[in-house]
């Protein structure tokens, strides 16, 4: 009896561990599929490019992950990226100062996030409606302001003395690892620490698990919701700066298009529950890289680029469906076992 009990406990622990870190298994499965499809043509540089190409969406996804953990959603992150990135170009061209440019990107992102947070947290409006509205507003402002300047694209002045420093940062590597990828890893470490080791992180999960219980426990739900959107805005600012460093320009008509969906997909594949209160932010890193690899698999298969979003959208649907079905199956298995 005791041996059976111990075996059952070990089996349960292993099953729980696999469930908690399933995003790693999903990433490895997708990565192996990519290697097989590429038929040995994958190089170390190609692997590092996965990390590089995951940076912008991955950092956006960490903000999205926190919002979803609280039970909300932010559909404006792609448009926020376009607006903040465009204005950051203007600041750089007028200051020729990388530090001021970076700080402005963080500030502008925080202000955009604060607007969302005030409407959701203070005015108690649905996050879906608020961020759907600001998704339209932010991109519209970015495009309108560009037209008032008589330009077709936000372009960093290549003749400025610090242009090479910023552009070089976006292309730089440290021991073959892209610097923007290192930034993604640093953001991952910070966000995992914040979500697991700080009072703020615990409040975020508490609000997402049960808002009324969190309020009764003395948690300021309004401030928590506002701060989560501000953090999302700051991360959008980081993403905007990295995108500028990588490309040197920003087209508000196209940049960030569908990024809100890609960020949500990274969050879902990373194991964070769309119902809120559950999941690990570490999974967002693996979710973002998984989605990047899926993009590369589509390219390797030689499929028409127009079908790209159809495949990605289908994967997102399947991922959310699995999130909903697996708990039901587990519940039935427990009842059967009893």
What does this structure look like?
It is a single chain. The chain is mostly helical and 338 residues long. The protein has 14 helices and 4 strands. A two-stranded antiparallel sheet has the order 1-4. The protein has a two-stranded antiparallel sheet with strand order 2-3. A hairpin with a 2-residue loop joins strand 2 (173-174) and strand 3 (177-178). Helix 3 crosses helix 12 and helix 7 packs across helix 11 (221-247). The mean pLDDT is 89.
Return the average pLDDT rounded to an integer.
89
The CATH class label is Mainly Alpha
Q: Beta-sheet strand percentage?
A: under 5%
CATH-scheme architecture: Orthogonal Bundle
Number of domains: 1
Structural class: mainly alpha
Low-confidence stretches: none
Biggest pleated sheet? 2 strands, antiparallel
Which value, in Å, is the CA radius of gyration?
21 Å
- Coarse shape: globular
Strand order of the largest sheet: 1-4
DSSP helix fraction: over 70%
Task: Tally the helices.
Answer: 14
Query: Cα distance, first to last residue?
Result: 16 Å
Q: Report the CATH topology name.
A: ABC transporter involved in vitamin B12 uptake, BtuC
Question: How many E strands?
Answer: 4
H and E string: HHHHHHEHEEHHHHEHHH
